[in-house]
Amino acid sequence: MAKKDIMTVKLGQQTAKKPCANVHFSVGGPSSGNGPADIMLVQTLFNYIGRSNTRVLGFSQQGMPAIDGQMGPKTRNAILSFQSRNTGKLLSVDGVVHPANYEGRVINLAGQLMTITLLDQLAFDESIMTNDPDHIAGLVKLEPRLGPWLV
Known about the structure:
By secondary structure, the protein is of the alpha+beta class. It has one domain (3-146). 36% of the residues lie in helices and 14% in strands. The chain is built from five helices and three strands, in the order E-E-H-H-E-H-H-H. The chain has helices at residues 36-49, 73-85, 115-129, 135-142, 147-150, and strands at 3-11, 14-22, 106-108. The protein has a three-stranded mixed beta sheet with strand order 2-1-3, covered by helices on one side. The protein is globular, with a radius of gyration of 14 Å. It starts with a strand and ends with a helix.
């Protein structure tokens, strides 16, 4: 099930704690958990980011997956396209969105990231560009069914 987490990020010489969205189980692979709430979170992240910037996603609005919690071909293709488009920014390009473990770690956002971390960071950036004060609340506003896991 999707979850709200806290990650510690490195900002220049300082660190800061920031709320983030995370999956509980992997999404995308044949042996992944592929739970509906985790899939819905990934779909919502794509849709939230894609409101104004599909270029960074690697697919157009026509390739945008519906937010339905189902692991269909559009969601699979979206994950693969996103990872292919962002190969240099990601730790792995395997068609799977793996859960991140942020506990006790400081994340350098300028380095290579897990897919879920980059998606969350792009959603955070989108919230700044659209004057949305909180990207987590923005995700829930876009898909209210995520509320029980992200609020």
